[in-house]
Amino acid sequence: MRLFHTAAAICLALTVLFSGFNAAYCATSKNSKTAKTNKEKDNPKADKPKKEKEEPIKKSDTSEEVKKEEPIDEDKYFRQAFTADQLPPIKMIFVEGGCFEMGDFSGEGYEDETPVHRVCLSSYYLSETEVTQELYAKVVGEDPAVVTGRYLPVNNFTWSMLDVFFFKLNKLTKKKYRLPTEAEWEYAARERGKKIRWSGTDDEDKIGDYAWFVNNSENTIHPVKTKKPNALGLYDMTGNVYEVTQDLLDLDYYKRSPRIDPLQIRNSIYRVARGGAYTGPSVNNRTTFRYYFEMDLLSSAVGIRLAL
């Protein structure tokens, strides 16, 4: 019996001993965690590993990040415009009105260029260049030309196509663009009525300085403003492409033309164009030469110039 009590006492003592050890350990551990937590609160950056600074990724280091330079989109120059701001600039040259002797002053022309007769015109404006394919396409939404180019004169159109062009152009710009009359065209080509056979010069040896014609064109149209302008600042009034006028053809019109602002609108299947073209010799590029064409005939040698 005494042995049993002795064994029980030993077990109790061991239990108390280990319980004290566990309690002390737990207290110590708890105190340690509490101390660490307080330290972190006092200094949040304490005991935290420093983050190494990352080098930025260079675009040249990864092909996905490299932005390649996009090629120039030539098609954008021919996309239809929906506001006037989307159109290329249209520079108009002021032509002060006056009187001049219209017709074949040199005696080298054809019968329909006679008789020479006095004409007086009100002031007006002409576009600095022939209408380019870019402008036409921006207005209409398509380019009818066979040989295309942003700065080449528009060509290969019918009269109904021109009606659409002017209707849309005037709607976009809120202006009243039109074709010049035959008299307005000649007056401006001759630099307000001077006796010059080609626009810019009366010297046949210098035609090539001002015009693309059969001697230098290599049988093709050329971009506008690549030759010298005449004294009014108008380009390609001689050569490159014929320029359509408002007038319908009447071979005898000069015999009965009104003196003030003449315009021939009697019925005809032909319309008058002026100025010569890249296909013609010097004689057919004269400022008084009258060319005519069927209004629904497509031609790469016929273009337009704006009047206002």
Mean pLDDT: 81
Number of separate helices: 5
Task: Give the structural class.
Answer: alpha+beta
**Which percent range describes the beta-strand content?**
5-15%
Instruction: Show unreliable segments.
Output: 1-72
Q: What is the distance, rounded to the nearest whole angstrom, between the alpha carbons of the first and last residues?
A: 137 Å
- Give the H and E element order: HEEEEHHHHEEEE
CATH class type: Alpha Beta
**Coarse shape:** globular
Total DSSP E strands: 8
Rg from Cα: 44 Å
CATH architecture: Alpha-Beta Complex
Q: Output the CATH homologous superfamily.
A: paralog of FGE (formylglycine-generating enzyme)
- When the domains are counted, the total is 1
Q: Quick one: biggest sheet?
A: 4 strands, mixed
Neighbour order of strands in the largest sheet: 7-6-5-8
Instruction: Find the CATH topology.
Output: paralog of FGE (formylglycine-generating enzyme)
Proportion in helices: 10-25%
Task: Set down the secondary structure blueprint.
Blueprint: H1 2-42, E1 92-95, E2 98-102, E3 117-121, E4 124-127, H2 133-140, H3 159-173, H4 182-189, H5 207-210, E5 242-248, E6 270-274, E7 290-294, E8 302-303
Sum up the structure in keywords.
alpha+beta; paralog of FGE (formylglycine-generating enzyme); four-stranded mixed sheet; 5 helices; disordered N terminus
